[in-house]
């Protein structure tokens, strides 16, 4: 049936059915880890060497995929920071583009995992990632 041939009653029923289905399902917000960086940042290079290759393979990386943000370019219009980042790297936990957590600087591999993990463990996606892994 083409949309032009649908009666208003059928369209209203389809719309109501869709809304009823959506009401039973919680909206899923997008969680990302924004990495604010700049060319020439030695700590960004170190993070790229130590963490970047394994990030997407980790529970942390699956919970909050990485989004790179260039501090020297125009900041993305779909991201709202609590305050403009000044240091690189700055790791910003984003929910639907809104900042909900921040780690300024790269404290080294050992401290990084603990600090980022503490932020992520407060998010509902963390438990969902655990369930997805059978844990």
TrEMBL record:
This is SoxS. InterPro entries: Thioredoxin-like_sf (IPR036249). The gene is soxS. Gene3D superfamilies: Glutaredoxin. It comes from the Bacteria. It comes from Rhodovulum sulfidophilum.
